[in-house]
Amino acid sequence: MPWEKNFDTDLALQQAMKVFWDKGYDATSMADLTKAMGINKGSLYNAFGGKKALFVKAVLKYDLEHRREAIAQLEALDDPIRAFGMLFDGLIAESLADKEKKGCLLVNTALELPSHDGEIRAIVTGGLQDFESYFRRGIEVAQKRGDISASIDAPVTAKGLLTLVVGLRVLARGVFDENGLQAIKTQAMGMLAQPLAF
Description:
This protein is mainly α. It has a domain at 59-190: Orthogonal Bundle (Tetracycline Repressor, domain 2), CATH 1.10.357. The chain has helices at residues 9-23, 30-37, 41-48, 51-75, 80-97, 105-111, 118-144, 154-171, 178-190. It is elongated, with a radius of gyration of 19 Å. This is TetR/AcrR family transcriptional repressor of nem operon. It holds the Pfam family TetR_N.
Protein backbone atom coordinates (compact mmCIF):
# COMPACT_ATOMS: atom_id res chain seq x y z
CA MET A 1 0.00 0.00 0.00
CA PRO A 2 1.54 3.36 -1.01
CA TRP A 3 2.34 5.94 1.64
CA GLU A 4 -0.31 8.61 2.03
CA LYS A 5 0.34 12.02 3.54
CA ASN A 6 -2.22 12.87 6.23
CA PHE A 7 -0.70 16.05 7.62
CA ASP A 8 -0.03 19.63 6.51
CA THR A 9 3.51 19.61 5.10
CA ASP A 10 3.78 23.41 5.14
CA LEU A 11 2.85 23.55 8.82
CA ALA A 12 5.19 20.65 9.61
CA LEU A 13 8.04 22.41 7.79
CA GLN A 14 7.30 25.60 9.72
CA GLN A 15 7.58 23.69 12.99
CA ALA A 16 10.81 22.03 11.88
CA MET A 17 12.26 25.41 10.93
CA LYS A 18 11.54 26.69 14.45
CA VAL A 19 13.36 23.73 16.00
CA PHE A 20 16.43 24.14 13.79
CA TRP A 21 16.37 27.89 14.43
CA ASP A 22 16.24 27.36 18.18
CA LYS A 23 18.75 24.51 18.53
CA GLY A 24 20.91 24.49 15.42
CA TYR A 25 21.35 21.56 13.06
CA ASP A 26 23.76 19.42 15.08
CA ALA A 27 21.87 19.75 18.38
CA THR A 28 18.50 18.93 16.80
CA SER A 29 17.52 15.27 17.06
CA MET A 30 14.99 13.33 15.03
CA ALA A 31 12.95 13.06 18.23
CA ASP A 32 12.93 16.87 18.52
CA LEU A 33 11.70 17.14 14.96
CA THR A 34 9.00 14.49 15.04
CA LYS A 35 7.65 15.87 18.33
CA ALA A 36 7.49 19.45 17.03
CA MET A 37 6.08 18.43 13.66
CA GLY A 38 3.51 16.06 15.15
CA ILE A 39 4.49 13.18 12.85
CA ASN A 40 6.41 9.92 13.12
CA LYS A 41 9.87 9.23 11.75
CA GLY A 42 8.54 7.30 8.76
CA SER A 43 6.31 10.18 7.71
CA LEU A 44 9.21 12.60 8.07
CA TYR A 45 11.42 10.50 5.79
CA ASN A 46 8.65 9.93 3.26
CA ALA A 47 7.64 13.60 3.07
CA PHE A 48 11.01 15.32 3.47
CA GLY A 49 13.75 12.75 2.89
CA GLY A 50 15.44 12.85 6.28
CA LYS A 51 17.01 15.37 8.64
CA LYS A 52 19.49 16.94 6.21
CA ALA A 53 16.95 17.34 3.41
CA LEU A 54 14.47 18.77 5.90
CA PHE A 55 17.09 21.26 7.10
CA VAL A 56 17.73 22.40 3.52
CA LYS A 57 14.01 23.02 3.05
CA ALA A 58 13.80 24.82 6.41
CA VAL A 59 16.71 27.16 5.61
CA LEU A 60 15.27 27.92 2.17
CA LYS A 61 11.89 28.67 3.75
CA TYR A 62 13.49 30.95 6.34
CA ASP A 63 15.52 32.75 3.68
CA LEU A 64 12.43 33.33 1.54
CA GLU A 65 10.18 34.50 4.36
CA HIS A 66 12.71 36.63 6.22
CA ARG A 67 15.63 37.93 4.16
CA ARG A 68 14.23 37.96 0.62
CA GLU A 69 10.83 39.27 1.65
CA ALA A 70 12.42 42.01 3.77
CA ILE A 71 14.75 43.09 0.96
CA ALA A 72 11.86 43.24 -1.51
CA GLN A 73 9.89 45.48 0.85
CA LEU A 74 12.86 47.77 1.46
CA GLU A 75 13.68 48.13 -2.23
CA ALA A 76 10.05 49.00 -2.91
CA LEU A 77 10.53 52.15 -0.79
CA ASP A 78 12.74 53.60 -3.58
CA ASP A 79 14.85 55.47 -1.02
CA PRO A 80 17.94 53.33 -0.39
CA ILE A 81 19.52 55.30 2.47
CA ARG A 82 16.24 55.55 4.38
CA ALA A 83 15.71 51.83 3.71
CA PHE A 84 19.15 50.98 5.11
CA GLY A 85 18.32 52.88 8.31
CA MET A 86 14.97 51.11 8.53
CA LEU A 87 16.70 47.77 8.03
CA PHE A 88 19.04 48.31 10.97
CA ASP A 89 16.18 49.69 13.10
CA GLY A 90 14.15 46.60 12.29
CA LEU A 91 17.01 44.23 13.11
CA ILE A 92 17.58 45.98 16.43
CA ALA A 93 13.88 45.91 17.34
CA GLU A 94 13.60 42.24 16.34
CA SER A 95 16.72 41.36 18.33
CA LEU A 96 15.49 43.14 21.46
CA ALA A 97 12.13 41.38 21.18
CA ASP A 98 13.85 37.97 20.74
CA LYS A 99 13.69 36.84 24.36
CA GLU A 100 15.03 33.39 23.46
CA LYS A 101 18.06 34.96 21.72
CA LYS A 102 17.60 32.78 18.63
CA GLY A 103 19.13 35.33 16.29
CA CYS A 104 18.95 34.69 12.54
CA LEU A 105 18.81 31.14 11.20
CA LEU A 106 20.86 32.09 8.11
CA VAL A 107 23.62 33.72 10.19
CA ASN A 108 23.52 30.93 12.78
CA THR A 109 23.98 28.40 9.98
CA ALA A 110 26.85 30.47 8.54
CA LEU A 111 28.63 30.08 11.88
CA GLU A 112 28.25 26.30 11.59
CA LEU A 113 29.37 26.08 7.93
CA PRO A 114 32.44 23.90 8.57
CA SER A 115 30.10 21.10 9.66
CA HIS A 116 27.80 21.41 6.64
CA ASP A 117 28.10 20.09 3.10
CA GLY A 118 28.22 22.01 -0.16
CA GLU A 119 24.46 22.32 -0.57
CA ILE A 120 23.98 24.14 2.72
CA ARG A 121 27.09 26.24 2.12
CA ALA A 122 25.73 27.30 -1.26
CA ILE A 123 22.39 28.35 0.23
CA VAL A 124 23.99 30.38 3.01
CA THR A 125 26.66 31.90 0.78
CA GLY A 126 24.08 32.77 -1.85
CA GLY A 127 21.79 34.39 0.72
CA LEU A 128 24.57 36.53 2.18
CA GLN A 129 25.87 37.48 -1.26
CA ASP A 130 22.37 38.54 -2.26
CA PHE A 131 22.18 40.69 0.88
CA GLU A 132 25.50 42.28 -0.09
CA SER A 133 24.17 42.89 -3.62
CA TYR A 134 21.13 44.64 -2.15
CA PHE A 135 23.41 47.07 -0.34
CA ARG A 136 25.54 47.64 -3.44
CA ARG A 137 22.50 48.35 -5.62
CA GLY A 138 21.14 50.78 -3.05
CA ILE A 139 24.44 52.64 -2.76
CA GLU A 140 24.73 52.93 -6.53
CA VAL A 141 21.17 54.26 -6.83
CA ALA A 142 21.79 56.82 -4.08
CA GLN A 143 25.01 57.91 -5.78
CA LYS A 144 23.28 58.41 -9.14
CA ARG A 145 20.66 60.56 -7.41
CA GLY A 146 23.32 62.61 -5.64
CA ASP A 147 22.15 61.53 -2.19
CA ILE A 148 25.57 60.24 -1.15
CA SER A 149 29.11 60.87 -2.32
CA ALA A 150 30.21 59.32 -5.60
CA SER A 151 33.58 58.67 -3.95
CA ILE A 152 32.12 55.92 -1.78
CA ASP A 153 33.31 52.52 -3.01
CA ALA A 154 29.99 50.73 -3.48
CA PRO A 155 31.26 47.10 -3.49
CA VAL A 156 33.54 47.60 -0.49
CA THR A 157 30.92 49.54 1.48
CA ALA A 158 28.31 46.88 0.69
CA LYS A 159 30.61 44.24 2.18
CA GLY A 160 31.10 46.42 5.23
CA LEU A 161 27.36 46.86 5.72
CA LEU A 162 26.80 43.12 5.38
CA THR A 163 29.52 42.53 7.97
CA LEU A 164 27.76 44.89 10.37
CA VAL A 165 24.43 43.10 9.81
CA VAL A 166 26.04 39.73 10.59
CA GLY A 167 27.86 41.19 13.57
CA LEU A 168 24.66 42.73 14.91
CA ARG A 169 22.84 39.41 14.59
CA VAL A 170 25.58 37.55 16.46
CA LEU A 171 26.20 40.14 19.18
CA ALA A 172 22.47 40.63 19.80
CA ARG A 173 22.27 37.06 21.09
CA GLY A 174 23.53 38.16 24.48
CA VAL A 175 26.71 40.21 24.13
CA PHE A 176 25.41 43.69 23.18
CA ASP A 177 22.56 45.60 24.80
CA GLU A 178 20.44 48.16 22.96
CA ASN A 179 23.14 50.83 23.17
CA GLY A 180 25.66 48.48 21.62
CA LEU A 181 23.28 47.57 18.81
CA GLN A 182 22.51 51.22 18.15
CA ALA A 183 26.26 51.85 17.90
CA ILE A 184 26.42 49.29 15.10
CA LYS A 185 23.67 51.16 13.24
CA THR A 186 25.53 54.45 13.76
CA GLN A 187 28.67 52.86 12.32
CA ALA A 188 26.72 51.52 9.34
CA MET A 189 25.10 54.83 8.48
CA GLY A 190 28.40 56.62 9.01
CA MET A 191 29.89 54.56 6.18
CA LEU A 192 27.47 56.37 3.85
CA ALA A 193 28.05 59.84 5.21
CA GLN A 194 31.20 60.94 3.40
CA PRO A 195 30.94 64.63 2.40
CA LEU A 196 29.36 65.18 -0.99
CA ALA A 197 31.61 66.73 -3.61
CA PHE A 198 30.27 69.95 -5.11
